[in-house]
Amino acid sequence: MLNSNTKLGNVFFNSKNNFKYYSCDYMRFEIEKHWSKLMNISKLSEKELQESKYAIYNRMKFINESLIPSHIWDESEKLINDIDEDDIDFIALSIFIKGYLWTGDMKFTMA
After folding, report:
1. Which end of the chain, N or C, is less packed with Cβ atoms under 10 Å?
2. Measured between alpha carbons, how far is 33 from 36 in angstroms, rounded to an integer?
3. Are 62 and 22 in contact (CB under 8 A)?
4. This prediction's pTM
């Protein structure tokens, strides 16, 4: 979202036929919660950052967390192990869809 001209940005936006991207609805809340921080870090105008947000949203399929069974939440809570409780939704979703977690948080590694 902050810079689509990086290698990761290139993979995300130019891999339509290779990868499918999913996120939980909580991601939208997190983006809004940290909007002013994103504005400061990105140095983008409000309009540019909004456009970046919508481009990302258009590449993703959002899944409501209420669809994730309780046993997966329990498993996710054990995995999170006090690392960053705000990320439990993303861990749970990754397990639920049997997908990979794409994160910049190096504290998380999943086998």
Report:
1. C
2. 8
3. yes
4. 0.77
